[in-house]
Amino acid sequence: MKYEIIHDLRIPKIGFGTWTIGGDTRPDPGQDARSMAALCSALELGYTHFDTAEYYAAGHAEELLGQAVRLSGVERAALFITSKVNAEHLAYTDVLHACEASLRHLGMEYIDLYLIHWPRHAMKLAETFRALNQLVREGKVLHLGVSNFNLKLLEESVALSETKLITDQVPYSIPEREYEKNGVLAYCQENDILLTAYSPVKRRYISGNNPLKALARARGVSPQQLALAWLVRQPRVITIPMSFNPQHQADNLAAADMDLSESELAQLPKF
Predict the structure, then answer these.
(1) Fewest Cβ atoms closer than 10 Å to its Cβ: which of 61, 95, 105, 176?
(2) Reported pTM
(3) Sequence ranges of the domains in the chain
């Protein structure tokens, strides 16, 4: 596994996302067994960075993640847990309450990385960061970040955070380059901030992209692995794919150690 070393943190290039664990926007108990199996498999395979949010299954994804960690016997200190506060909870008191709820759901004493999930129109970012900074001072959160922030909001967040901002989590993949084109990727790389790529594997794109599939066949890997390897070869970029399938989880993890040649990179589609 390759890592990014940033502000004394050692974060895996590939983590595990938990969107659809335990449901989507609402809890779905019928998915609990499948969700727990996926989380336990990921922990057994050696994933150590898990990304979740209060929005995911209305907190139930956090609950299942906490249960899986306790079942696994993996020490809490060996894991890096990210969670996020909803856009509806960005007022000072609401942030504090949301974090308490996430800690309760996880059954943990602290969250390694806490993000603003989405910006909201007319939000008072200074008020939000007043609460986030307080959570860091209290030890309930160790590090701060944002998600889906454009360059202007990212720069404002850097100025408002009392500690080094760790990441901007955004959609980024071979066919989806908005945050490369709008300057966020370059700003992160120049200012020691991670760009965490979510939705890193666009399955519709991969299934219909013959050049990518041909390149993957020649390499003896899956197109999904190739797409992940393209991401993590970039400095200050990490990613959080998700799969319920243990073999796909293992393949995703292995993609972190793939090195793409200049010839292979030249054959990837340009966007």
Answers:
(1) 176
(2) 0.96
(3) 3-202+232-244
Structure tokens at 200: 């890193």
Q: CATH fold of 3-202+232-244, please?
A: TIM Barrel (3.20.20)
Contacts of 60 (CB under 8 A, 6+ apart): 22, 23, 27, 28, 105
pLDDT tens digit at each of 271 positions of the chain: 999 999 999 999 999 999 999 999 999 999 999 999 999 999 999 999 999 999 999 999 999 999 999 999 999 999 999 999 999 999 999 999 999 999 999 999 999 999 999 999 999 999 999 999 999 999 999 999 999 999 999 999 999 999 999 999 999 999 999 999 999 999 999 999 999 999 998 777 777 677 888 888 999 999 999 999 999 999 999 999 999 999 999 999 999 999 998 988 888 877 6
